[in-house]
Amino acid sequence: MAGRLKSEIKQKRPFASLQEEVVLAMMRTADQLAVPMNEILRRTDLSLSQYNVLRILRGSAGEGLSCGDIAERMVRRDPDLTRLLDRLEKRGLVTRSRSTTDRRVVLSEIAPEGLRLLESLDDEVEATVRKTLGHMPADRLDMLRDLLDEARGNR
Question: CATH fold of 18-121, please?
């Protein structure tokens, strides 16, 4: 079965390779899957990257994380993580402090207001995620997850 991407993006020329087509299809799919999440987050003035950082900090269970630790866990790379953390701190969603063992390291933690914000979004985000891929049966989702894991594995 040939991919639909070529017609979706109204491309006249063939792709240079199957790999190019697949990479572009993944990028387009990721963009389209992000649309409903962006709509939810826009109401709270959060970007996907800011939301991701808040979830990472919530998941660290009160253990402060350095910028490097956060960057390793990000779903999408953000080249300006420090500025992103500055904005979250300014909004009272994150707190930062110097490490007691190495004063050069700044540790970030989610603030109580950040926890409240995430909790207010949890149900709607979960419902949106389920709806976004709800048309796919579990066995196909398992297969897709495994294929994506495999695609990321060869870097």
Answer: Arc Repressor Mutant, subunit A (1.10.10)
Query: pTM of the full predicted structure?
Result: 0.87
Sequence-separated contacts (24+) of 44-49 with Cβ below 8 Å: 44/117, 44/120, 44/121, 46/117, 47/84, 48/75, 48/76, 49/74, 49/76, 49/78, 49/84
Neighbouring C-beta atoms of residue 41, cutoff 10 Å:
18
Using CA atoms, how far residue 151 sits from 2, 30, 105, 137, in Å, is 19, 14, 34, 21
CA distance 32 to 18: 21
Residue ranges of domains in the chain? 18-121
Q: What is the pLDDT of residues 24-37, one digit of tens each?
A: 999 999 999 999 99
